[in-house]
Amino acid sequence: VSQRIFIISLGCISAIGRNVPSMIASLNSGTSGLKISSLFKIQNEYCITGEANISEEETELFYQKYHTRSRNIILAHCAISEVLAPFEDLNYINKNKIGLISSNTTGGIDLSEKYWAKKTSDNSVLYQHDCGASTLFLSKNFPIFSYKTTINTACSSSANAILQGANMIKAGHLDAAIAGGVDTLTNFTIQGFQSLGIYDKEFCRPFDASRNGLNLGEGAGYIMMVNEAIAAQYSDMIIGEFVSGSNANDAYHQTASSPDAIGNTMAMNDAISKGNILPNDIDYINAHGTATPNNDASESKAILNVFTDKMPIVQSTKTYTGHTLAACGGIEAIISLESMRLKTIFQSHHFTTPIEETNIIPNVNKKDNVEIKYFMSNSFGFGGNCSSLIFKNKA
Amino acid sequence: VKTNLFIQSRSAVLPGFSSEDGSNDSSKITLENGTIRVLEKDFAKYIPASISRRMSSITQWSMYAALDALAQSQYPTPSAIITATGMGCLKETDNFLNQILDESADIYSPTPFIQSTHNAVGGALALHLKNNNYNATFSNRNTSFEDALIDASMQNQECILIGGFEEISNYSLDAIRSLYPVNTTLEEYKNLFSATENGMLIGEGTAFYVMSNEDTPQSRWVIADVSIVANYENKYELDVVIEQQIATLQESFSYDILMTGNNGNKIYDKWYQYIAKKYFESTPNLRYKHLTGESFAASAFGLWYCIDVLENQKPLTEYLYAGEVENRNTILLYNYFEDHHCFITIQKL
What we know:
With 395 residues, chain A is an alpha/beta fold. Helix content of chain A is 33%, strand content 20%. Chain B has a 10-stranded mixed sheet with strand order 7-6-8-10-1-11-15-14-12-13, with helices on both faces.
């Protein structure tokens, strides 16, 4: 009998809120977190980002307590605190079988940039440069994990972290996993995407014919996944069920998706078949939808490849949060789980004209009373990494 | 974790590597200012130079090792690609950081940004092999390779291409030297553990393996167990948890050889010596980091040398062991860095 996996707690921070309730309030009111950055510029002009609200004072307080100013650690700490907040203790969970499966792409590069530019001489920042450093700090801040790891598969990182959490629970290595990811706005990534010509100076427009690139955001999203036995102990906390996930590779280009949508189609089809469901069972897709010309064209094609009979509601919530890189799979799984719980598909922004070839129309206006039994969350990244996750309503 | 990963083939580009015969020859090792590096420049055997010269050096080494391991296996293409790197593609990270330091520049070259990503190697392999299968990259300090092995153990696949890699960059050199003792005056790698100067050698390289979850007629070695003990801020009495871990392993396995990750830092070396003496008194204790240096991929490199020992490839004096070994069937590879203690059990089939 295959082990079922349930989600019993969520934690999130992004440009639209410091926790899940505040994020849902922003989504409900259609309030985007994207705005002109006070910190970053592109070609000496303005740059639109989705910045999380962490003040300098807070950063200093965090530093005094946890000895780091690494924003990845602060953001992930916020989100994991929220995941753990509902639990007085974790006594129903075997202390030797609880894992932290984290992910990020930027590591401590926000600090390394300062050191590199000689804006700080504090060499302790060098200790926080790598991706694993944040997970290490988090394991010390929350001394409950018997196993921890860090995944970096670019923009599909936290989707793969959730998949890994599920696989480790299924294999019996873990009974419970907090899985997700975090990433920070850095000049490195902003100039990186700009150098590729895919950073839109204006607000990003997913699935719109006029789309011209992404806006970066920052944040963290983590979910707590548990096996059936533990879920039974926390039955009133069950939010949804993890059904299946797939990791495929496009094998087409280091940064671009294939025009025929090979990898993303494979990931979506494979997730559906692993979940023993049919495409028609999917009611909602939280698309990767970065608003780069390439991603949205390819993802649209993939959606048409997979959903030949009934088209689910398609939505990219990156108009709220920006593209949060390694965090997006976690954040978007949480937004979708909340959509499922509230039966609400939130409005999106800046969409006017569909892409001619594919004609995928994302959900524009807020929709209430939408029964979502199954949803799919897509995350695609550099290196050809394509991951799709499927979740199910708890009912 | 019981892993049962059956290894069919392997290839590594480590300090001393020569593309002439694909060997890692210790006589070719030279040290420079506390670093032990890959000096070979020619990696055209599997990738035409016209393509490989556009790749970063770490990607070139990794492509070579991965494709070489695959070529030695019976499989044309892997059913999963899993890579492990603590620091990622550092030289390209340096390059892009250098570019953006010039804030007045209008245009930056995207090439180093693209190549700086940790999954650049896994992506390049998928691209070269036109491989659409599972593809993951673990970046979790010195347990990256162990985490990749645990992931591999859950794949239920015949051909898992799995490897670990690290490279030295100027930035990382500064970082490591400012954070840890490095033996910058050592001239002869063999003297790492007898040197009066305290400190490690900073290493780099790549090692790839073809593994399956089932025993096949082509399987030659098996990774039977991967265990990680984390002891943050001395939460536990380290002696006690390590003793428990070793006792558990010794219940299941009879070790012929102990391979430890002594690195030249006297604190580390003392600890390994203490463990070897206390729990492995009659077991030969071999060392390998004088050949590879210290890095977050040290376990991937250590596995390569453990297999060399299983295959009796080099005299034991290479591992600074003067005695003889009775059997070469089961090796325990014990590596630790800071709070993470890793144990890999490797057996000859």
